Amino acid sequence: MQITDRRRWLKQSALALAGLGLSPTLFAKSVDHSVLYNQEDAILLGSNENPYGPSPAARKAMLENYLSSNRYPDDIVVDLKKAIAAHWGVGAEHILLGAGSSEIIGLACLHASKRKGHVITTHPSYQEWNTQASAFGLSFKRNQLPKNATTDIEKLYGPVTSETSMVYICNPNNPTGSVIETKLIEQFAVKASKQTLVFIDEAYTEYAGMDSLARLAINDPAIIVAKTFSKIYGLAGARIGYAIAHPETIQALSNYQPWPDANVSTVSAAAAIASLTDRGFLLDCREKNNKVKELCYSTFQQLNLEYIPSSTNFILFNIDTLKEKFNSGMKNKNIHLRIRDAYGGKWCRVTMGTLEEIQTFTNTLKEIAV
After folding, report:
1. Rounded Cα distance, 243 and 201, in Å
2. Residues contacting 64, CB < 8 A, separation 6+
3. Bond preceding residue 172 cis, omega within 30 of 0
4. What are phi and psi of 362, to 5 degrees?
5. Nearest to 169 by CA among 125, 138, 232
6. What does the pLDDT read at residue 38?
7. CA-CA distance, 62 to 272, in Å (whole number)?
8. What is the residue extent of each domain of the chain?
9. Between the CA atoms of 227, 231, 232 and 238, what dihedral angle is there, to the nearest 10 degrees?
């Protein structure tokens, strides 16, 4: 969906709600991702969102269910858990819902903090949850992740000791987009779970076409797999994710919520159920994503910019040679990106937007590099 199409759909939806006597402002409101950018015309390539979502099926479900928002979503939550369970071939007792997989990570950190110690993770890796973990009394042991991941996962994560509260594995990894083979993670997780909690973040497996380790988690109380509807399903704003784990672990995590699955709305649950049925949308998003990645790769190669081939909807590339020209050049075109320190230099993580957005990004990059 192009930016104009997306806005048109939002306006049409708002008009539909207005016809039912509801204010359009109740349906959609722009979010200011950064005060540095004009939101109306911004190209948002900094948060790994799906520029094409929600899917048509999810949009329809949201519109059909918003009027039920005066009721608690008990029934539809049960339906969603059954749908997720069927999708992965597990029982509903293995599923816990949350407001995005970020809530699930937070619950796991709280659970892990019962045994004070450290979390083993890699650097760079996803770390938005680190402040919360620290607030629970956990410290971190970070091991350097090679640019193309590694085949020696035991060496990468190092020894698990009595002072290890949790091991966090993001695969595919954010922000590098690199992948560790599923079978290697499985072997490591089985071994590590004998001593500590193992958390496997699978936010981007759908983009990579990878198998889930759900089958592993349902039989081992010390392994948690986290999934989300925020990425390829295009529901980042709906805030819905889930854990797949052993029933004992699901019960333990749910005890930290006001009640089990408490933070899921009727509208988001309806959208998630519909998203699981729209296989064609998922495949189309993956195909479009791969095409714009190739456009980025060719541009980076043309400009001699180092980058890490990605199995996700983002690419990490080195901007050391561009210095301040990069920041000012992208800001002038209202392109929103994520810049970070990694591998001894400055790197940019660019999310794969629409073809139109990525063409603007790559053309801007060429202008900056002149």
Report:
1. 9
2. 270
3. yes
4. -70, -35
5. 125
6. 55
7. 9
8. 31-55+280-369, 64-277
9. 90
Per the listing, tokens 């099926």 go with: 57
Q: Which positions of the chain have pLDDT values less than 50?
A: 1-36
In order, the DSSP letters of 304-357 are T--EE--SSSEEEEE-TTTHHHHHHHHHHTTEE-EEEEETTEEEEEEE---HHH
Q: What's the pLDDT score for residue 14?
A: 43
Cα(148)–Cα(151) distance, rounded to whole angstroms?
9
Q: Give the pLDDT of residue 13.
A: 45
Burial 131-146 (b: 16+ CB within 10 A, else e): eebeeeebeebeeebe
Q: Which two tokens stand for residue 110?
A: 């709280």
Instruction: Tell me phi and psi for residue 326, to 5 degrees.
Output: -65, -50
Specify the pLDDT at position 282.
96
∠ Cα 155 212 315 (to 5°): 70
DSSP state string for 36-99: TS-GGG-EE-SS---TTPSPHHHHHHHHHHGGGGGS--HHHHHHHHHHHHHHHT--GGGEEEES
Q: What are the beta bridge partners of residue 121?
A: 142
Single-letter amino acid, residue 191: K
Give the chain's end-to-end CA distance (angstroms, integer).
Answer: 31
What is the helix (H) or strand (E) element at residue 224, kind and residue range? Answer: strand 223-228
CA distance 266 to 273: 11
Take residue 277 and report the two structure tokens written for it. Answer: 């049925």
HSE-CB for 293 with a 13 A CA cutoff: 20
Strand 223-228 to strand 197-201: parallel, antiparallel, or no bridges (unpaired)?
A: parallel
The token pair that represents 298 in the structure block? 């060719």
- The reported pLDDT for the residue numbered 148 is 87
Assigned CATH topology for domain 64-277: Aspartate Aminotransferase; domain 2 (3.40.640)
User: What span, in angstroms and rounded, lies between the C-alpha atoms of 280 and 117?
Assistant: 45
| Residue tagged 């979502």 (tokens) | 53
The dihedral sign for the CA sequence 100, 106, 108, 111: negative
Count Cβ atoms below 10 Å from residue 325 Cβ, excluding itself.
14
Question: Class of the 31-55+280-369 domain?
Answer: alpha beta
